Please model this.
Amino acid sequence: MNKGQKLSVAARREENWGWFMIAPTIIGLIILNLWPFVQTLYASFCEHLGFGHYKFIGLQNYIDMFSNVEFWKATWNTVFFCILTVPVGIALALFVAILLNAKVKFKGGFRTIFFLPLVCAPAAVAMVWRWLFNGEYGILNQMLGVKIQWITDPKTAIIAIAIVSIWSSIGYDAVLLLAGLQNISKSYYEAADIDGASKVTQFFHITIPMISPTLFSVLIMRLMASMKVYDLIYMMADETNPALVDMQSLMYLFYRSSFVSGERGYGSAIVIWTVFLIGAVTIIQFIGQKKWVNYDV
Model:
């Protein structure tokens, strides 16, 4: 066996070992992600008969879904929730990251404080905020001197949910953005100071372009999380809440359709629609990122 053949055999053996090492992950993705999605896609064209049995009915679930006013209301609630939470949440996270990146005392403590909401149990978070938003004896109303039914008023219910979502996620996003800020060389700012650039100019011409890849990643994750919101609505509202229709998301409507009403085929159609929305938004983001994300620094 010549030298070239030995190298080829060694390269093939190394490649086989590589496939062997990633095989558990690939198998897990197929079993836990790909196959359930295929099952959901099939179920969306079926009527659930109970005990795992389905009857194929074609596009009827989608026809019923697109003709349902409650479905379109849930779609708008999901989109509106993203509009409320994503821009404000990322802007506040970037502001917190900049503060944490500055030369301040107890920096590690502040990072822990901002990151703490993420590790708290969602049920505990929801219970605390339900107490804060209580229209009769809530702390927020007492501080503002008003009497607003934050969770039961259709005009404020989704805003209250958005506030809790932003508060819960700001620490995680700030930590990611902080990592991006710490990778920026100080020489850029020193050169800008010599040229007489203001702090605002440095922010928009140095900071934003340098952390744009991290900002893009945070944007994708936050949009996906906002479009799949369910737990906060489930734990902060109940079936008797008069504002439920005005605050329920697509995922909450899926829960009600599949596990309350027992219409799992219809619920699967809602999931497929949500996946389509997430995919469309992600594609638009990847197309648009060519204009503002800078990978060359």
